[in-house]
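## Example record

The block below lists the input lines for one assembly entry, exactly as stored, with component labels intact.
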Amino acid sequence: MQPTTINDPCLDELSRLGLERNALELDICGYTVVSDVIDRELTARGLNATLDTFAERVGRRPQIEADPHYAGYWVSRYVLLQDPAFESIIVADKVLALIDYLVGKDCILSTLTAHIRGEGGGKVLPNGYLPLHGDDTSIAPHPTFANYATVNICLTDVSEESGCLAFVPGSHKRLRKPTKQESVLAGEGANPEAVPLVAPAGSAIIWPAHTWHGSWVSDTPGLRVTLAVLYARPHLQPYEMYRETVPDEVLARNSDRFATLMGMDTMYGWNDNRDDWHRNWRDRDRSRYSPRIVDQAVPAREQI
Ligand SMILES: O=C(O)CCC(=O)C(=O)O
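Predicted structure tokens for the full assembly:
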């Protein structure tokens, strides 16, 4: 007699991609790392695009080999629409298989933020370590399931010397953020539970947002560059406004799943339109949702 075969699309995808062990690590340890989630070519494009973003916003292109201007910890938010390479990175199949496992296939993109860590020391940001924290913004106790999942895509090798991530294994099960004392990552009173995680360029470090993590300072002249991607269940408020701003052209050249990540299958966000409030954003004319100019009064007859 053969036992029943249990089928589940999420489980089948994890098996197809050989990610069962990673799913277990997420459950038991609260973090995992997967190599080669993006190939060399996409990694190089992602890195270039990230450096361009900093160049445009900061006024100086970071020099990967050594750049004292980028000492310490730098972030650049809302980068998705800066380059098509980012569009491919957020839908990398191994990443999405584990994201589906953590927060469901209908999740949305909350933020795509670029991080640079350059050489630097000291006790506080921007040059010091990033204290241990959790990425779940909900009040404690957090739910026993994940509402958010974070991914760091490594665009350069992330070694201990370059200021790698620190994790507290099993901390996702504590369902709360670390206290001030528990957040200390280096020096006197450093939390002894924190362990380093290193990963080569092209890999993804993934965790349910409950897991306590931070990063150590870098003592190498070269820059460590990563993309921090936060995926959220669809009822949660995203950090970045893709639903309202993603160009039609970007939606047209990407998959249905990409549109879901942009919030196109959500219904939140009404104005006084009377004929489309019941539709998901995918089926609305988004040009009718351009924001009103805030310092102009709404004429009385326009109010319902
Ligand atoms: O890049 C880092 O050093 C920290 C990343 C982080 O805390 C995050 O992505 O939530």
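Residues 115, 117, 130, 135, 150, 152, 165, 213, 215, 226, 228 surround 2-oxoglutaric acid (CB under 6 Å). The radius of gyration is 21 Å.
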